[in-house]
Amino acid sequence: MTGHRTGRALRALTVLCAGAVLTGCFAPQPPRFGDGVSVPAEQRRIPLTVPPGPDGSWSLLEAREGLIGEGRKLARIPQEAEEGVHGPVKGWTATLPAEFAITSRLPGRPHSAVGLLQGIVLIGGRTGRTDPTAVALAEPSSGVLLWRHPLPPDSRVLLLPGTTGPTIGAATCSAAGCRFTAWDMYRGTRQWSSSIPGAYRVRTPCGADALGGRDAAPGLCGPLVIGKDRVGTLDEETHRPVWIPGLRPPAGTVDRVAQANYRTFLVTAPAKGSCRATVLAAAPPGDEHKGWRYDFVWDQPQAARDPHTGCRWNPGLPLKTAFDLVLPVRGGALVVDPYFGPEHQPRRLAEGAYAVAADGRGSPDLIRAPGRPDRPLDPALADRRRTEALGAGARQVSGDLFQYGRKLLLVGYDGTVRWRGTSDCIPFSAVTPGEVTYCDGRNLVEIKAVKKD
To answer: Fewer beta carbons within 10 angstroms: which end of the chain, N or C?
Structure first.
């Protein structure tokens, strides 16, 4: 198809070149971890009011908004004024009701949270229910709950088009169809509701249903409505389905979806016993490449066996990176071009390895495997000297900055360790590529890349 690149390297080059044009090809670039000359410098320390979970991270972590949450504690990290972007942001810590304790990292699932401009959406749960029990909105400047609505069984929380402004919605499906209800974002009052007979499932291309994991897409978005023989979106004005021409869902239970790379992706959950699954990549009308379909046996060695299906299956592992689709095929994950599918230069990873997106700022996608340090997915970018300098299981934080246990190491491609530190949590990157936050005891420490004299 005209305008499409046929290789991952060309697509990556296109993105990098576009970024260079937008930012100024010859303008001086700010320091970053990975430019070969910058080292970390401490900028400030902030009291850590929400301790991380047992694995060293938080169930809610939205660095751009300065939000962290774990268990019944929710906090906004104070932010200094950023010229032309925002003024100073006051920090706060709130204690949540037990129903809204934040323990899930899959936005949209029970006990998860999503930060929006209008507030923090909290999705409740309780013992005996595997689906959301309630939805609430916390005030963005204090964490105080503004409103709460109970949810019927088998509901999903999502964003829906509103008549007078943004809305939080819920979809509840049964044998008779799916019913949608939308509440005003600010007041919690009901704006509209409607039913769609013949629909049996609702999924959204973000949050828990997305292919790319929690950091790849907003936590809440609009739905894809799935019927027995058709798939559609929801019209913003009529709130009725707009069925996508020629798109029929594959056999099985559609579990994850995406709309990207000129494709609508439908991925079925592994079938009970056989673990067979299907990826359907549907093309829009008029696309000369008609899309593709791939059937395979689902197996993720990194995951425990699901008690219902008997398959090694972890919905939290990403299936999509910046440029690639990762299919958890038995014998080793298959990395494919999302547009063309397995017919175009697929790559098989070693069993137990999987691909993840890097820091989202132009860094290459990574291969992550037990007992090995992170390394670039593209073999041409890998460097053995740096790999040997890192310990087994080292994880990339940003650019050349890695974490190995509690150790923080800035390691160049030549294997030289240019800076050492320690962290009591899993560090996270801020909005810009030259800023990282880590933990030192009961403090969050912000470091910034600076040019070394």
So the answer is: C
pLDDT tens digits for range 325-367? 999 999 999 999 999 999 888 999 999 998 887 654 445 688 8
Give the per-residue pLDDT at 10.
44
Q: Tell me, what's the pLDDT at 13? A: 46
Residue of 86, 85, 87, 65 lying closest to 76 (CA atoms): 65
The chain-wide mean pLDDT, for the chain, equals 86
Residue 427 has pLDDT above 80, yes or no: yes
pLDDT category at 9 given cuts 50, 70, 90 is very low
Cβ pair 99, 86 in contact under 8 A:
no
Please tell me the pTM assigned to this model.
0.86
pLDDT at 164 over 50: yes
Q: Which of 108, 215, 101, 218 is nearest to 158 (CA)?
A: 108
Nearest to 155 by CA among 126, 176, 178: 178
CB 164 within 8 A of CB 184: yes
pLDDT above 80 (res 379): no
